[in-house]
Amino acid sequence: MAEFRFTREARTPHSESYRVDDGEHAIARADIHLTAAGAHATLVIHQSVSDDTLHDLLEALDDEIVSTADPYREDLIVTVWRGEEVGVFADDSDDDDDEDGEDDDES
Fold this sequence. Notes:
alpha+beta, five-stranded mixed beta sheet
């Protein structure tokens, strides 16, 4: 089975987001939502990930993340999307100011 590294990027009381690496590259992102009835996940994998690697990744996600949740969740439902990374975008409020600190408005 392939080895994966899960890096948690965000956590709330009922959900977590992970970046998944294969040792060389980021190959997936996982958003996991824990409910009283079970766990629901959205897994977005890179288009280069094979079906065999996907199967191994689903097992690792269950074994390393979901089964360690407190309390233990027996049911895991995963929706898988396959695509390519376009980029990471963030709203940076510092972009609103000019580099020299002056406003665009003239009096």
